[in-house]
Amino acid sequence: MTQKAGTATPRKLGTPKPRPARLSPADVARLGAAGLRARPLRLFLSALGIAIGIGAMLAVVGISASSRAELDQTLDRLGTNLLTAAPGETQTGEEAVLPKESTASVGRIGPVETVGATAAIKKSIYRTDHVPAGQTGSIQVLAAQPELLTVVDATMHAGSWFTPATATYPTVILGSAAARRLDVPGVGTRLWLGGEWFAVIGILTPVPLIEELDSAALVGWEAAQSYLGFDGHPTRLYLRAAPTQVAAVRAVLGRTVNPQTPNEVAVSRPSDALAAQQATDSALNGLLLGLGAVALLVGGVGIANTMVISVLERRVEVGLRRALGATRGQILGQFLAESLLLSALGCAGGTLLGAVVTGLYAASQGWPVVVPAWAMAGGLASTLLIGAVAGLYPAVRASRLAPTEALAGT
Hints:
Blueprint: H1 25-37, H2 40-78, E1 82-87, H3 102-107, E2 112-121, E3 125-126, E4 140-144, H4 148-151, E5 156-159, E6 171-174, H5 176-181, E7 190-193, E8 196-204, E9 216-220, H6 221-227, E10 236-241, H7 246-257, E11 265-268, H8 270-313, H9 315-323, H10 328-365, H11 373-399, H12 403-408
Parallel strand pairs: 4-9, 6-8
Antiparallel strand pairs: 1-10, 1-11, 2-4, 2-10, 3-7, 5-8, 6-9, 7-8
Helix pairs in contact: 1-10, 2-8, 2-10, 2-11, 8-10, 8-11, 10-11
């Protein structure tokens, strides 16, 4: 039977329906990139919101990690085997007194490597003898034993430490802060101390583990007894123990310093204060990370807003593509790819921003620059997740547009 002209050829029974062309991931990525390039200003502003959130979070983590690295280096350099012993309180609430032989007793503990002591002296130090008595500048006068410099691992900024000779004469060594408060530029200056002129023979560099020495004026142990009426009782012992025996030495230190009343001896470990400071800083870092997360969430809202507006503006484009055979899945993939690419651009900018801020701040503080890899990986994962969630609704909405409805502009 012949077929009339102008009639369509019927599809044979059993012939499969034609399948729509499939887009490769590269094709989807190119479509998404083309959609973003068409609106560069909107792309920049939307990516900026994500970049600020990622940059803030990465900077907080990087600065915190750099601070911890500096603290670890400081502890490695200064050692965590430094212990101190100071007078506690008696049963009547008064301040206890350490025996004169405390230093020698502690030195006999096997694992103790070196020990030194200081003693607080109730005297004031002044730039001249014309300064009113009340203006002390919060500078404490301490008698110091010769071994103290080695025990606390301090160094001299100028001048020299006490020698067997200078420790017996009216000489003084200033901490770094005390030298600034007294406006002492270097050695050789004379200071008025306890009704006597004392010559400055040295200035210490800052002592990280023993900050009280920074604002102190140190005099020799023998000179303090000769010129300042010092009675010879130490008020704080500093000792270094074998690193593996710190806990054991700490356990017997009180009984060794004062066998009669060991409960009147306060034993501490200066490095524990730094660890507590690190724990306090971590709480603040948690707050800052929360603020960074809020900024990241705001960036995600910006992406969602951008994609919704993009769908509304491109209804005709979506309808034309649907009319030409594009499936809902392909439309969905196109707009989802745009959202993910936008998030990836923001993440790249935020990572660079966070690394730069961390590097500049760490360099200004003299810290090692540390940007944890897990933070960058976590930032990338969270950004892509937020981008996918933010772009999912606009992408689904675009894929559900009917071709005739989209082309009609309704």
